[in-house]
Design goal:
The structure is a single chain. 75% of the residues lie in helices and 0% in strands. By secondary structure, the chain is mainly α. It has two domains: 172 residues, no CATH class; 78 residues, no CATH class. Helix 2 crosses helix 3, helix 3 packs antiparallel against helix 4 and helix 5 packs across helix 7. The termini are far apart.
Length: 315
């Protein structure tokens, strides 16, 4: 427990520089007006009232997401975005419903996600005696920078790699998933392949049973029973991700056997460094691809048929 005087000091510091409610409301209204005008200009199929209603719904969903994220440390912005996707896709129907659903989903996800992110940052500021106004200004500066850097990064990837190719390195699986969900919102479940819903029901019930078995009857053997959520990840982003996870798991397992205390302390930091390094190398790889230069070392995993077709040795 935090000592009472420390908590009082943090509360006083945090409340001293709090952001007035009027300022927050005015800023949100201004952003809503700008989005309501600009988004339909970019996507003509998206009517202004779709964006307007998204901004009306978003604060309630944002509060729910921020509250849930505070309890579980897990933002469900994508879930709320899917809710908006289905609603607006069905509303627009055949008149550009897929695009309307995707854009509305993006608007909802950005707003709802920002609410949870800001609450986490404010909690950090509360614990470190930082000014909430300074943190908010920093967030605004970062957002403005993101409006410039994000499109440039997308342009870099789009020109350097074959983004969206199912056989390529960057398959963009979520793009396909969200588009299909928008299609379902427009056409209903009839757009799904035959027996698709039956398989969904079966896998859902199976996942619930496995989780129940892990938590109740065979709790002491839970470490040897696969986690359904972890098993589902490769179906979303491809099997290459599981290779990284497997190698990381082996390293953690060996490290814990050699020095459990040090492993518990350093594993998160080392894992974060590896993830950041992988991301930084992706940027370098994109620059090399634009410059028509090959990386000095490259390793990939291909199906045996593909390797045979390319004349590569299979192991």
């Amino acid at each position: 427990m935090m000592p009472l005087h420390d908590e009082q000091r943090r509360t006083a510091m945090f409340m001293k520089d709090r952001i007035p409610l009027k300022v927050a409301v005015v800023c949100y209204v201004v952003l809503a007006i700008v989005s309501t005008i600009s988004v339909p200009l970019i996507f003509p199929q998206v009517k202004w009232y779709y964006v307007f209603i998204s901004y009306i719904m978003a604060p309630v969903l944002g509060f729910c997401n921020a509250y849930g994220c505070g309890l579980t440390d897990w933002s469900l912005a994508s879930t709320y975005g899917k809710l908006g996707l289905f609603v607006f896709s069905a509303w627009a129907g055949a008149n550009g419903g897929v695009l309307v659903g995707l854009v509305s989903c993006g608007v909802m996800m950005v707003i709802v996600s920002c609410s949870a992110d800001l609450m986490q940052d404010f909690k950090t500021g509360y614990l470190t005696l930082s000014s909430p106004r300074s943190m908010f200004v920093s967030q605004v500066i970062g957002t403005v920078m993101g409006c410039i850097i994000a499109p440039l990064t997308f342009w870099l990837f789009w020109n350097a790699f074959d983004v969206g190719n199912p056989q390529g390195e960057y398959k963009a699986p979520y793009a396909i998933i969200y588009r299909e969900m928008a299609t379902i919102g427009v056409q209903g479940f009839g757009a799904l392949p035959k027996h698709c819903l039956d398989m969904c029901y079966g896998f859902f019930i199976g996942a619930m049973l496995v989780n129940f078995i892990r938590d109740k009857p065979l709790k002491k053997w839970a470490g040897y029973i696969p986690i359904p959520m972890a098993m589902a990840i490769p179906f979303y982003i491809g099997p290459y991700f599981t290779i990284d996870m497997f190698v990381g798991t082996v390293i953690v397992y060996v490290w814990q056997k050699l020095n459990l205390k040090k492993a518990k302390l350093l594993v998160p930091a080392v894992a974060s460094g590896l993830i950041c390094g992988d991301g930084i190398w992706t940027l370098i790889s994109a620059i090399l691809a634009l410059a028509k230069k090959a990386a000095p070392l490259c390793m990939t995993f291909l199906p045996s048929k593909t390797a045979d077709h390319m004349g590569l040795p299979a192991y």
